[in-house]
Amino acid sequence: MTHAGTSAVLAAFVANPPFIPGSVLEDARRSVLDGLGSLLAGSLEPPARIVQDLVRGLGQADDASIFGAGRASAAGAALANGVATHILELDDIHKGSTIHAAAPIIPAALAVAEREHQGGAAFLRAVVLGYEAALRIGEAVNPSHYRHWHPTGTVATFGAAVAAGTLMGLNERQMLDALGTAGTQAAGLWEFNASGAMSKTLHPGKAAMNGVMAADLARRGFTGAPTILEGPRGFFAATSAVHDAERVTADLGQLWKVSENGYKLYSCCGHTHTAIDAALALRQAHGWTAEWVLNHVREVRVATYGPGWDIVSERNPQTPYQAKFSLSYVVSAALLEGAVGLTQFSENRFGPSGVTQEMLARLLPRVQPAVSAELSAMYPAAWPARVEVECIDGQVLRAGGDFPRGNQENPVSTAELEAKFRALVEPRFSEAVSEPALALVRHIEAVPDLAVASAELNILCQGARHE
């Protein structure tokens, strides 16, 4: 097809979707499982608490659950839960679009499903279609969009609107209006990364909230730009140097984007994960201890791709948040400690002068990251990294990969995702929350009314949270 009409073609598809295969719905369930774990665990973190307090102050409403913190309007709950889902940097990632889709789309869908008293099957279908819209638009503008814009805040606004609109039963014209209104609200700039501001977590929350608002407005007859994507002053032209509109419509209904979703096993930026995998593989293969690494390693050379390096170039982080975007730090942690989890980002490891944990501070200057033109050319189809460890005896050991663990090409099992869920939720709440939550996700298509199921889970969360 020609580029003209991209917005209309997408609206027609999501408003009148074909049969969604069971395997695709299962992939959506895995995304919900992973996203809910990050939501519940993140709901107790300071940025989440700030937004929860704000949302409660916007007015009394009883539409949907703010997990761990009461109830609010659907838009307010979507905002609060979207922020919470992104805080720990463990929510999902789709490599082709560089979008963390769970944080904006699942809270929007869940909030509207509660308000509209929709069942789990309708919710899961909405999640599939929301991912479909967001990830396809993200692929169309990636990678040039990523230079200044955070696609989890920008592009995912479209996905949240589609998910919300699906649960509201929007027709084709209304869905096109919802896309138009979503696109004119899409925002999220990378400037926060320079200071480690909380803005990154706000992006998916606002995308979720704006998506709900866009669908609500469309249902009421509020019109949106019908060429919001492809128009001369539309989203493509405004937010990308180069775009490929065909990525939005190619193989619609045949290739489902939620099935390409990736899952994060380390609590840091996804652009570091392939390098972490390589560092962990070297440590395990050679039986290294922290003491051996400190005493025998002269230099660690890490090759990565340019668009990722722009985000993870911090060399000596002063805060846990900066450390999550420091390729040097996370590779050091992997080599010394054999793990890059929440413990590795504890407050007591950092100070005004940088990393204060003694062993990490000693290794960090020896880690030399660099951008590889060869690896940059592979992105975003691959997220490659190469790690070379040069020992003081002259030996050089190498490891690397093109896809981090958790990606479709290097997958993790549902059992591993459930183990991750428990590890996130149980320390912050208890088994009294984690097991009912897991049961809800496993059998979500049989849930007749998510308003009831979500409210019950939220009551458990409020009674069991560990501050």
Automatic annotation (TrEMBL):
Domain MmgE/PrpD C-terminal positions: 266-439
InterPro entries referenced in this protein's UniProt entry, alphabetically: MmgE/PrpD_sf, MmgE/PrpD_sf_1, MmgE/PrpD_sf_2, MmgE_PrpD, MmgE_PrpD_C, MmgE_PrpD_N
Coiled coil stretches, renumbered: none
Gene3D superfamilies: 2-methylcitrate dehydratase PrpD
Domain MmgE/PrpD N-terminal: start-end pairs: 10-245
Family indicated by similarity: Belongs to the PrpD family.
Protein name, per record: MmgE/PrpD family protein
Lineage: Bacteria, Thermotogati, Deinococcota, Deinococci, Deinococcales
